[in-house]
Amino acid sequence: MEAERAAPRTAALTRTTRETDISLRLDLDGSGVADVDSGVPFFDHMLDQLARHAPLDLTLRCTGDLQVDTHHTVEDCALLLGQAVHEALGDRRGIRRMADARVPMDETLAEVALDLSGRPFCRAEVAEAGSAALPPSLVAHFLESLATGARLTLHVRVLYGRDGHHQAEAIFKALARALGEAVARDPRRAGAVPSTKGTLSG
Questions:
Q1: Are strands 121-125 and 153-160 parallel, antiparallel or unpaired?
Q2: Count of domains for the chain
Q3: Under DSSP, is residue 29 helix (H, G, I), strand (E, B) or coil?
Q4: Considering the domain boundaries, does residue 181 fall inside one?
Q5: Taking the C-alpha atoms of 162, 166, 171 and 176 in order, what is their torsion angle to the nearest 10 degrees?
Q6: Is residue 201 a part of any domain in this protein?
Q7: Residue 102 covered by a domain
Q8: Which of 4, 44, 61, 154 is the most buried (most CB within 10 A)?
Q9: Interior angle at CA 64, CA 127 and CA 183, nearest 5
């Protein structure tokens, strides 16, 4: 049982399409180290927040069609990151599974609640969160794509705030805190799947 709890939870994935070429490595039990280059500096900043505050270790390289815009890069990175979370979790035995977090960023307050349920769903109320390179619609799409790839249920909202950068950063920090708590091993579960169904495959 101790060996099961200590088993590494990592994933190394690639995704190549006509729009993006991505390589990604993830360690759910890391120390918050991010080495990220998506070609979109503001997005890199948000992924760094995600890794640092979970904490998890994330290495990502993406070459995307930024001459079009940032959409394909952000979408495909989110899908691959979600798939890496799913792969690293395996059958999801012994995890806490559900978690939530509220995070302030100056005048902004954001909250995230998630469930590693095996069932992808996302509701994102992030109307003003983001920047020129990562507009609110793309922040929401990142969250939706992450939930799809990771097969998790995700609810996100900004309670209030004025600055779009602050709102996006509060969201990513809250996502990090909730994800880090949800993937954490719970010693009380003794390696059991945290579901009355006995499975979290959906």
A1: parallel
A2: 1
A3: coil
A4: yes
A5: -160
A6: no
A7: yes
A8: 154
A9: 60
pLDDT at 196: 44
Beta-sheet strands, E only, within 84-152: 98-105, 108-115, 121-125
| Residue 12 one-letter amino acid | A
**Identity of residue 11:** A
User: pTM score, two decimals?
Assistant: 0.93
CA-closest candidate to residue 118, choices 152, 147, 67: 152
Q: Please, are residues 97 and 194 in contact by the beta-carbon 8 Å criterion?
A: yes
10-residue stretch averages of pLDDT, the chain, 202 residues long:
67 98 98 98 98 98 97 98 97 93 98 96 95 95 98 97 97 98 87 58 62
Buried/exposed 77-108: b ≥16 CB within 10 Å, e otherwise: bbbbbbbbbbbbbeebbbbbbbbebebebeeb
Range of the domain at 56: 2-189
pLDDT the model gives residue 194 = 58
Strands, sheet with 121-125, edge to edge from the N-terminal-most edge strand:
98-105, 108-115, 153-160, 121-125
Whichever domain contains 174, its CATH number is 3.30.230.40
Tokens (6 digits) for 132: 């020129």
Write down the pLDDT at residue 193.
62
Give me 184's structure tokens. 């954490």
Residue 198 lies in a domain: no
Are the beta carbons of 168 and 139 closer than 8 angstroms? yes
